[in-house]
Design a protein that fits this description.
10 helices, single chain, EC 3.5.2.6, about 270 residues, two-stranded antiparallel ribbon, beta-lactamase, alpha+beta
Amino acid sequence: MVNLTAARTELDDLIRRAPGTVGLVIEDLTTGERLEWSPETQFLAASIIKIPILVEGLRQAEEGTVRLDQMVPVPDDAKVGGFGILKELTSVTSISLLDLLTLMIIVSDNTATNLCIDVLGVESINRTIASLGLTGTQLQRKMMDYEARDRGLENFTTPADVARLLRLIATRQILTPEACDLALDIMARQQVRDRLPLYLPDDMRVAHKTGELSGVRHDAGVIFFESGPVIVVALTQGFSDQLSQSFVGGDASALIAQIPRVLLKHQRS
């Protein structure tokens, strides 16, 4: 387990000095001990919204509404900018739903995400979000949809909601155990590793999803410490340094990377 009481003082100081808004939830799944900072504050979800989309994809596959091996067309007009590789692959005209879900998570592929939304349906995704008690979370637009954003449509979530969803997955309380394990396996293959995993040992498993917009950096996942799994949800916004205003690095990413470092320091057997 991690001595969260001992870690709290360092984390308090880290958040107090932050030049932006930080929402943080840490929960030791072995002991049930939990630390919170602004857990109910609503943040722009950025790519964190892709976690409930993943859950909905696995839920519909379990229900038989879709198949993970079903092939989904990839038309040129579905390709969007931002993160991802599908937009660069001219020979890929169709791809399995499972591969779309995987690309959506491990490289935060925006084209893959939008295709998943098309297959699964916005209403179905939001229905599942609501049914899981994620009251501060909503999918209102696709990725890179600037027209919808200009109309005031955004995707939102809270640290408490993300922590709840991760707990349900990690403790196998939603879907089948196999589907929960698949979700964690996909998240553990995340290739953006400049936040939660940055200062952790290379062989430590971290099943997580990042998110970024201008001034916004997030990372949320389950860290499998030797002493047991710990949920860490770190959402940030309002960071004004030059790198944080872009899409790579910056003070917010650096802050998030320090959180597991503190927890590792206070790990106890």
